[in-house]
Amino acid sequence: MNRRAWLLFLLVSFLWGIPYFLIKVAIEDLSPIVVVAGRIAIGALVLIPVAAARGSLAKLRGHTGPVLALSAVHILVPFTLITYGETHISSSLTGLLIAIEPAVIALLMARTEPLNRGRVLGLLVGFAGVAVLVGVDVSGDRWGLLGAAMVLLAALSYAVATILVQRRLSDVPAEALTGATTTISAVILIPFALLALPSEPVGLPAWGALAVLGVFCTAVALLAFYQLIGLAGANRAGLVTYLNPVVAVLLGVLLLDEHLAPSTVAAFALIAAGCWLSTRPSPAPTAPTTPAPVSQPAKVVAGLPSTPGTASDG
């Protein structure tokens, strides 16, 4: 990846590492549906003027189907699943479970990027890490299992969205694409959010968390991520989930007093190792070596060596 791709990678890794903490803060005073609809609506209000100013909204023509699909799999479904999932599990665990996304992308792209032994091993190791993580952290807690299942479905949805952007929407400018998907999602969710508005006063931390979620973790992060897909491809762009959990865990442990057990760290290590193995590029096939032509026996001339360039004896 070039320098710009690396900068986008680091930016998205940070901006998508902090939402889990912010969601936990926001849902203290706001219902999950209000948080989801609010952050998406704020994102749309930021993105649509940017796209209009750049004159890129016209590039959406002819892409209605893929844009609607992307609105569902990259905004509507995962944002809702993650927010409701965090009502049952910690922000740290949420970030760690999302880390399985690169392995899911590798599995979904197996038809175009065949799985070799290393990638298959990576998938097995990564999913074993998820099994350990879920088994240790939420075993016996049916609501915790439900929350974990929601987050894993969100990771699957993110993986589908990443591939969809690369295959069907790579020619659409990022600001037009993000503006359209957030607007569509907001229009769908706002009526439900209006029915769940809080009746009690909402604290400043919740409103602040919602504002940051909308402007930075939605608008800015989506713009950066779609540009990253265009520069680095779906597999590499999905690797932002290597760093997301680190940010999520640090914020959860330091600011929310969430517990981090050694077994959780070990499980994440398995997930990270599995994702790394499953997304490694396949080794390039070695070209068959053409045997050198067998030369005809050289004629021996008196006083000269039989092989050119070889000194004569004595």
UniProtKB/TrEMBL annotation:
Residue ranges of the TM segments: 7-27, 33-53, 65-83, 89-108, 120-139, 145-165, 177-198, 204-225, 237-255, 261-279
Annotated compartments: Membrane
Organism domain of life: Bacteria
Protein keywords: Membrane, Transmembrane, Transmembrane helix
A GO cellular component annotation in the UniProt record: membrane
Domain EamA: 6-134, 146-279
One Pfam family hit: EamA
InterPro entries: AA-Vitamin_Transporters, EamA_dom, EmrE-like
Biased composition regions of type Pro residues, renumbered to the chain: 282-291
Membrane-related topology note: Multi-pass membrane protein
Region (Disordered): 282-314
Family note: Belongs to the EamA transporter family.
Protein name, UniProt field: Membrane protein
Lineage, broadest ranks: Bacteria, Bacillati, Actinomycetota, Actinomycetes, Micromonosporales
